[in-house]
Amino acid sequence: MNENEIAKTVLDAAFMVHRNLGPGLLESVYEKILYSELTDEYRLAVVCQQRIPLKWKKLKLDVAFRADLVVENKVIIELKSVEEVHPIVSKQLLTYLKLTDCKLGLIINFNSSLLKDGVKRVVNNL
Hints:
By secondary structure, the chain is of the alpha+beta class. 38% of the residues lie in helices and 33% in strands.
């Protein structure tokens, strides 16, 4: 699957979760449920809370960052359950994409009344 196909699958699963549970739960709840859907129902390889190391010259920080979900080693998903997603989240996700050489990331804010209003794509050299 390419990045866009993975993103479509992730969003299909996220919309189904949101349709059934609605907004208002903790981010960690949505993370566990979306992970379960993607691995069990869609048979995708997903890593939760994947460490993203940071290398600077001779220094390597193994726990510099953690991505909420990494799907098929290609798409990084940042999950939120907040009133408003601040612009820094997009910048943070772009940094994750650069550090991992991934090309596509999704920010999904489950606290939106309409989930489509809570989805943002972030691209790295696409």
